[in-house]
Design a protein that fits this description.
- This protein has ten helices and eight strands.
- By secondary structure, the chain is α/β, with parallel strands linked by helices.
- It has a single domain, classed as Alpha-Beta Barrel (TIM Barrel).
- Strands 1-2-3-4-5-6-7-8 form an eight-stranded parallel barrel, surrounded by five helices.
- Helix 4 links the parallel strand 3 and strand 4.
- Bound molecules: zinc ion (ZN).
- The site of zinc ion (ZN) has 8 residues, from helix 5.
- GO terms for molecular function: hydrolase activity.
- Keywords: Hydrolase, Signal.
- This is Glycosyl hydrolase family 10.
């Protein structure tokens, strides 16, 4: 019990970090149709994730974006909390500094969503019957919506359309496009006395009436009756496909609006499947930005290369680019240099840093130097 208070802030940082993602560009090279399988090789691309508060002035954004432009970044992924007006305000400022803009949004996890909050039944329900509406797992802002229910899906897709319509935006960027973590990173478990050796009921979603009824209709068995739901492959696959269905619909919406679709995802497909029920190598998506944040998994820098390579292999034959997400705050300059090299030499199309404001002057020097051929 004593460790609970220590656990939450660290976990919050971790979860927040995992939510950051990136996007692709349209004007500078991404194709917007899947017909062009043979596209000219793009130059290695540099991105960063940032969050924008609408109370800030244009001058303050201009100063921040200038720094990114001056240091050679190609693209910024902006979280405006789903606000199209703020996004539209930021596009010209970013363009001034030659930055592509990608509309980054928390997708299935919707903390602070005033519309969703009017509908408690839209929220995902755990195997032990708790709703993310009032009893979220792990942290207070884990407000996951049900991916099956018609109304919650339409709400999410409507938000995607709103941002996809903003002029000058290159892509819509999906984040938290998954279920809540059934397993947290192994590095955190002993440190905080949290044991997750099996799929525990309080972290297992979604067992709402709509999900279980739809599954039962299709498979003639009810997940609430399973002794060990983790070994029922149809139930697992049902949930993987529920996430995929939202992604594929988002792809349609973004392309109809002349934009492409990008997504922040877990390090590589099997890992994403195991930890958060996210099988991104099967999605319709133009680019993925796997968050290969080695420090959260107790892994070394070369693991960034390992995970990058696995993702690139798994995407072979699909028209999806992979840009490696790097968590910069705890990296020395040498580690950062090596991380970028690991991504490059293992087939990534670019790298994205989390997050922009956290990058130090020394790290900027490394980023600039790594752009030279
Ligand atoms: Zn549900």
């Amino acid at each position: 019990m004593i460790k609970t208070t220590k656990f939450l802030p660290f976990l919050a940082l971790f979860i927040f970090t995992l939510n950051i993602s990136c996007e692709t560009k349209k004007e500078t090279g991404f194709t917007t149709t899947s017909e062009n399988a043979e596209v000219e090789k793009e130059p290695f691309k540099f991105w960063t994730w940032i969050t924008a508060e609408k109370t800030r002035t244009d001058a303050s954004f201009d100063e921040e974006f200038k720094k990114y432009g001056d240091n050679g970044l190609d693209a910024i992924l902006i979280n405006t909390y789903g606000d199209p007006e703020l996004l539209a305000r930021l596009v010209p400022i970013a363009k001034k500094h030659n930055l592509e803009v990608h509309a980054w949004m928390f997708t299935m996890n919707r903390p602070g969503d005033k519309v969703a909050e009017q509908h408690p039944e839209w929220y995902a329900v755990s195997r032990d019957g708790k709703s993310c509406f009032d009893e979220p797992p792990y942290v207070g802002y884990y407000k996951w919506l049900c991916p099956t229910r018609k109304e919650s899906r339409e709400h999410i897709l409507g938000l995607i359309e709103g941002l996809a319509k903003v002029e000058g935006v290159a892509s819509f960027h999906l984040d938290y496009i998954r279920y809540s973590d059934i397993f947290l990173p192994i590095g955190l478990l002993p440190k905080y006395d949290l044991k997750q050796e099996t799929e525990l009921p309080e972290y297992d979603f979604c067992y709402c009436d709509v999900c279980t009824a739809e599954f039962e209709k299709e498979h003639h068995k009810n997940p609430n009756d399973f002794t060990n739901p983790a070994i029922d492959m149809e139930w697992k696959n049902f949930r993987l496909n529920k996430v995929k269905a939202i992604v594929d619909e988002a792809y349609k919406i973004t392309h109809e609006n002349g934009k492409i679709l990008t997504a922040a995802v877990f390090p590589y497909p099997e890992m994403a499947d195991h930890m958060v029920r996210q099988r991104w190598d099967k999605w319709k998506v133009d680019a993925v930005l796997p968050m290969i944040y080695n420090v959260f998994y107790n892994e070394e820098i070369d693991w960034i290369g390992y995970a990058t390579k696995q993702g690139v292999e798994d995407l072979k034959g699909r028209n999806t680019e992979l840009h490696t997400g790097i968590y910069v705050p705890e990296m020395t300059v040498n580690q950062l240099k090596e991380a970028i090299n690991q991504a490059k030499s293992n087939g990534a199309n670019g790298v994205s840093f989390f997050d922009g404001p956290a990058i130090t002057e020394e790290q900027w020097q490394v980023i600039k130097a790594s752009q030279k051929p």
